[in-house]
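Form 7-S
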Amino acid sequence: MKLLKDFGFGLRTYSEALNYIFRERLAWFFVFPLLLNIILFWIGWDYIGSLSEQVQSFLQNWLDLENAVFWGSGFLRATIGGFIWIVFKILFFLIFAYFGGYIIIIIMSPVFSYLSERTEKIKTGNDYPFEFRQFIRDIIRGVFIAIRNLSIELVLTILMFILSFIPIIGWASAIMLFFISAYFYGFSFLDYTIERKRLSIKESIQFMRENKGIVIANGFVFSLCLIVPFCGVSISSFAAIISVVAGTLAVNEIWEKEQR
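Output:
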């Protein structure tokens, strides 16, 4: 079955990519997800803390708790403050848990584009002279693909949620959603190479459909990392580096076979 065969091929290129990164001295690209994690969590944590304080202040003023003198008013103020803090921190993690993958792809799109180009140059010798205008186009396309995939995935998530209430079909909805996410993540990682082949977005979509097993396998590990409790986004940002290299190796191998 082609789907399973392609899935196995995609996993093989993923394992090859990890060795390839260290063998070809591309491991310094892991510095970027490290910096991203520091910046996102530092800014996000600080912003969430500030926002929770503002909401807490608003509620206390609205309920006039500062002037309240009834028994237990101090405890009530402290309870409200703690509750708001916990709720906002949980929301912060939930937002990152669902949108974190695409946040990584969008923010790190310039890094992924350059990494994919470097990988192909080392692997095939194909040299792509740097052009600022083309580089910007690559970034815009990467962001557009990520937003497109996120939008489709949100629609499918809503559909899966509705289907989850149907007996028998419902239990499989979570598994289906996982593989849907893996497909769209893999799509984003492979498209950096597809773009350099001068394929349009429409042609890229057709390529992904014809090689969906490879695409799913490429996004599979990234998706697995995302569902790790609490630190999924952090781990997946490093996995994304491997996914881009794996996607580049896979696309070039397919491309060479088709050109023969």
